[in-house]
């Protein structure tokens, strides 16, 4: 369990995963050091330039003055407000955290095996007036294993950037089991928000799609059927 208080009252408050997802199975879960995982990082090792992730494009769109940005933010808030968000493949930036925070989520669980340490460090440096209101937990476990732990009907979900970097490395049987767990753990009234994906979503229906797939700021919203 990680339960790290940070003295600065304006910094993010890290807490335990049990506090954010009551009823989660934690036996064998290692938060402090990632175990075995699948896929590749979106961040190349041979450059200091950090590529812009899909979540970053979406965040920039939601905070811009473009047409429909306010209505899209309002729609996402309707699905996320008062929920714990599980961000699958969160990367090593605060983009997912910021989207969840601005939409009124009450907890943020970042599942990130490749960049566990970097993500904890960058989140720990965030300073903003309302940051202490939404506690955070970073999990270094493989997303397939973590999804098995989450109780039914319990969370909202972010899934960005996993098609090109993770799913293509997974056996189809694993993809099907993972997608079943994603559908199972999605809370009624909340949503799966992420990239247009080839991953099946049993029991979920697409309710909105913003921008064409070739637009880096595109995303889809899926809810329970």
Automatic annotation (TrEMBL):
Gene3D superfamilies: Vaccinia Virus protein VP39 (3.40.50.150)
SUPFAM superfamilies: S-adenosyl-L-methionine-dependent methyltransferases (SSF53335)
Domain of life, source organism: Bacteria
Protein name: Methyltransferase domain-containing protein
Top-level taxonomy: Bacteria, Candidatus Kaiseribacteriota
């Amino acid at each position: 369990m990680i339960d790290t208080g940070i003295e600065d009252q304006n910094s993010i408050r890290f807490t335990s995963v049990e506090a954010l997802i009551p009823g989660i199975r934690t036996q064998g879960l290692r938060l402090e050091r990632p175990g075995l995982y699948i896929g590749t990082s979106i961040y190349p090792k041979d450059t200091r330039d950090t590529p812009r992730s899909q979540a970053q494009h979406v965040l920039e769109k939601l905070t811009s003055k473009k047409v429909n940005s306010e209505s899209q933010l309002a729609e996402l808030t309707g699905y996320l407000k008062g929920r714990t968000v599980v961000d699958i493949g969160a990367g090593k930036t605060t983009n997912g955290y910021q989207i969840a925070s601005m939409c009124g989520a009450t907890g943020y669980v970042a599942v990130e095996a490749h960049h566990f340490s970097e993500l904890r460090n960058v989140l720990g440096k965030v300073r903003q007036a309302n940051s202490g209101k939404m506690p955070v937990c970073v999990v270094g476990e493989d997303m397939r294993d973590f999804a098995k732990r989450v109780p039914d009907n319990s969370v909202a979900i972010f899934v960005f950037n996993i098609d090109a970097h993770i799913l293509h490395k997974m056996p189809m049987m694993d993809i099907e089991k993972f997608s079943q767990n994603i559908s199972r753990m999605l809370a009624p009234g909340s949503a799966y928000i992420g990239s247009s994906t080839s991953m099946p979503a049993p029991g979920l229906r697409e309710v909105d799609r913003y921008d064409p797939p070739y637009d880096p700021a595109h995303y889809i919203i899926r809810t329970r059927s």
